[in-house]
Amino acid sequence: MLSKKTKYAFHALTYLGKQQEKTPVLISEVAEKTKVPKKFLESILLDLKKAGILTSKMGKGGGYYLLKDPEDVKLADVIRMFNGPIALLPCVSLNYYEPCDECVSEETCGLNRIMIEVRDETLKIVANKSLKDILLAEK
Amino acid sequence: MLSKKTKYAFHALTYLGKQQEKTPVLISEVAEKTKVPKKFLESILLDLKKAGILTSKMGKGGGYYLLKDPEDVKLADVIRMFNGPIALLPCVSLNYYEPCDECVSEETCGLNRIMIEVRDETLKIVANKSLKDILLAEK
DNA sequence: ATTTATTCTACCGATTTAATAGATTATAGC
DNA sequence: GCTATAATCTATTAAATCGGTAGAATAAAT
Question: Which one of A38, B44, B56, B122 is at 20 to 30 Å from A9 when CA atoms are compared?
Fold first, then answer.
């Protein structure tokens, strides 16, 4: 399951994505409207900024706003950033690969093969769908 | 990601499934061969017994052995039992459904729709593949 | 009765997740 | 340059989950 942090990130992105003007929105406004604890949201927005998805302005009139085109914010990016691997086993993860310490060999591991299938089918969706798709569905 | 407990369950099932005779196998043997901590394995095997997948005999000559046909032990059953929901959000889970407390409405939630897709694609695989498939792949 | 092996009850430590508090730094406007 | 504003940084805490352990109780075979 996705962590709360991941869901919060999606909610915040959706809220900012819905904004007409690309003018800064206060953290506290995002927090209120998305019902995400403000202090927790702060760190999430900061991570999204570091990832180049959002940007911000400090001081009066400041706040956060979307930097990337919603189409370029793939669900997979957000999930990986806040939730970790998309694969169900470390030994089939593309971005967080680790061998399974219990497994003798990946070639002969029956679970491995199937989990590669699951990973690929999941990726087909989350690596192609983007914030844009979420926004369209919400309209 | 799947928890260690879930992986351990698969390893134990695979080991028991490979057995020719349906004769009881000691917990300690399974523990040794699959490299799963014995005490931890105990509770896993017990759960699998309660689910009707394995059965056991107590006392001398006792141990665990497969009860169900490997074809009838779907990956989804094992994952749900030890790892919880297969869906990535509680609001799209078939077996563990819960409304998202932050969400206003599931109809208008853009994430909801996409996560239903992911769930269905994942289920297509794990609800159809079984222990039998793992055993065939390991041969 | 003794040995063997599962079953049951309870607990523990480490890690992760979720959230909070307070000080600091950057910016706008007067 | 002062003040108000708002993001940023550092640190701590509370709660939940995960992985694992210990020991007593129960059941069965010989």
Answer: B122
Cross-chain Cβ contact A1/B85 below 8 Å: yes
Closest partner residue to A114 (CB to CB) among B7, B35, B133 is B133
Chain A positions contacting chain B at CB under 8 Å are: 1-2, 7-8, 10-11, 14, 34-36, 75, 84-85, 87-90, 100, 102, 108-111, 113-114, 117-118, 121-122, 124-126, 129, 133-138
Query: Domain residues of chain B, as ranges?
Result: 4-66, 70-138
**Does the domain made of A4-66 have the CATH classification 1.10.10.10?**
yes
| Torsion A24-A30-A31-A33 (CA) sign | positive
Query: Protein footprint on strand C: which nucleotides are under 7 Å from a CB?
Result: 3-9, 17-22, 25-29
Q: What percent of chain A has pLDDT over 70?
A: 96
Residue-wise pLDDT for A69-125, tens only, equals 999 999 999 999 999 999 999 999 999 998 877 676 666 688 999 999 999 999 999
CA of B4 to C1' of D20 (A): 11
What does the CA dihedral A59, A61, A63, A66 come to, rounded to 10 degrees?
-130
Is a pLDDT exceeding 80 seen at residue B101? no
Question: Do B59 and B29 contact (CB within 8 A), yes or no?
Answer: no
Is residue A60 exposed (0-12), middle (13-18) or buried (19+ Cβ within 10 Å)?
Answer: exposed
